[in-house]
Every structure is written in C-alpha cells, then in structure tokens.
C-alpha cells in the first residue's frame, strides 16, 4: 500500500482504536520524522489502551532518540579552514571537542585527562522530535592529527558522549603521498608531493 492509500483508509477509521495498525504503517512509510511522530503521539493520546499501544510507544521512543553526528574531511592543508558539519537530533545542547592526537602516547585515543585543542558549545531548545544541521568553520590548524568528540545533553537531561567514528581522525599537513605500481618489478613506487600545488619532493624518507 502507498502512503496515500493508507491515509485514505485511515481517514475512514481514525475515530476507532482499530485504526492502530494503519497508523503504524503510515508512520513507517512517512519520511518526515515530525509528521510520523505527531501522528503516533496524537493517536496514542486518543486511544491510550489500544492493543498496539506498546508498539506505538516503541515507535515514539525511536523518534526521540538523541543522536549526534560529525562529518569532516580526512585531510586538510595548513592553509585550509577546518569545516565540520554537525547533525544533532533531540539534544538540548552539545559540545564539539577537537583533540590533537599524540602518536607517541600508547593511549592516544584516551582523552579523559586531555584538554581539547578546540571546543564549542551549541544550545538547542526545540520540541521533540527535531534535527538540526550546523556548519562550523575554524581557522587553519597546525600540522598534526586530530579527532572530534561530542559531549551532549538530551531532552531528558541525560549525558552521552559520541565520537565521529571510533579511532577516526583528520590530518593537517602540506605533504601528501601516493603510490604507483611498477609492472616490471611488481613493486610500488611511493611519491611525496606538496598537497597544495602538487610540487614533488625529492629524497623524502617515508616511515610507517
């Protein structure tokens, strides 16, 4: 059934608790989260003891889940502004912390005792459910490897922490490298070049 067909059927039975299965199907097909949430919520208020109330409550909880997602490039030059896209769902506020990774530290991804290189807090106060997309532009960073962590408060006052992805990072450098397969020897030749203008570097030592 299409959402239009389901909606027509719902209009015929919306004053009955037996319309619950139709409401659930419409919510699953609805692409607008707010529309789906409001439909489930209003039906549950009108028929709180319907046979499908637990399923509807689970659906509402799904739309109320707090989420935070950061997106940024894997590589920046030292002259690039750092751009980060933040998608926040159902959060009253969240803080983006960027940490510089110390490669010599065996616990390099443990930032519990570290001060962030950059930190910014965003306040959000909207009715559930909602999703905000914010774009952050920062001045160029010095050479190094960085990762980002979100500290957030959801609409129930609960705290949670979320990284972009575990052990993901962005590198700030003006040197890039690439490899080309030498078909005669079967070995790869590795080249280093300026990341901005492509000028090759000679006699570069590469370590892994």
Task: Kindly describe this structure.
The protein has 208 residues and is α+β, with helices and mostly antiparallel strands. 23% of the residues lie in helices and 36% in strands. It has four helices and eleven strands. It has helices at 3-13, 20-29, 33-46, 53-64; strands at 67-71, 75-76, 82-89, 91-100, 118-123, 131-138, 144-154, 159-163, 170-172, 175-182, 187-194. The strands form three sheets. Strands 2, 4, 5, 7, 8 and 9 form a six-stranded mixed sheet that branches. It has a three-stranded antiparallel sheet with strand order 1-3-6, with no helix packed on it. Strands 10-11 form a two-stranded antiparallel ribbon. A hairpin with a 4-residue loop joins β10 and β11 (187-194). Mean pLDDT is 85; it is low at 163-167.
Keywords:
4 helices; six-stranded mixed beta sheet; three-stranded antiparallel beta sheet; alpha+beta; 36% strand; 208 residues
Residue windows where pLDDT falls under 50 for at least 5 positions: 163-167
Element pattern in H and E:
HHHHEEEEEEEEEEE
Main β-sheet description: 6 strands, mixed
Globally, the shape reads elongated
Describe the oligomeric state of these chains in a short phrase.
Answer: single chain
Give me the secondary-structure category: alpha+beta
Helical fraction equals 10-25%
Task: Output mean pLDDT.
Answer: 85
User: β content, as a range?
Assistant: 35-45%
In total, how many beta strands?
11
Number of helices: 4
Rg computed from alpha carbons, rounded to a whole number of angstroms: 25 Å
Distance between the termini: 56 Å
């Amino acid at each position: 059934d299409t959402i239009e067909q389901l909606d027509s059927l719902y209009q015929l039975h919306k004053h009955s608790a037996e319309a619950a299965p139709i409401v659930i199907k419409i919510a699953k097909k609805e692409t607008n989260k707010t529309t789906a949430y409001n439909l489930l919520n209003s039906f549950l208020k009108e028929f709180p003891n319907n046979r499908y109330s637990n399923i509807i409550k689970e659906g509402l909880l799904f739309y109320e889940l707090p989420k935070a997602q950061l997106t940024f490039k894997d590589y920046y030059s030292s002259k690039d502004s750092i751009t980060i896209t933040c998608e926040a769902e159902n959060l009253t506020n969240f803080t983006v912390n960027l940490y510089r990774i110390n490669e010599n530290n065996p616990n390099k991804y443990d930032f519990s005792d570290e001060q962030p290189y950059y930190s910014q807090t965003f306040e959000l106060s909207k009715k559930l459910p909602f999703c905000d997309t914010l774009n952050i532009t920062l001045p160029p960073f010095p050479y190094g490897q960085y990762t980002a962590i979100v500290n957030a408060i959801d609409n129930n006052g609960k705290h949670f922490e979320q990284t972009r992805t575990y052990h993901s990072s962005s590198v700030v450098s003006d040197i890039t490298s690439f490899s080309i397969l030498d078909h005669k020897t079967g070995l790869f030749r590795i080249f280093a070049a300026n990341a901005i203008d492509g000028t090759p570097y000679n006699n570069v030592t590469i370590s892994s």
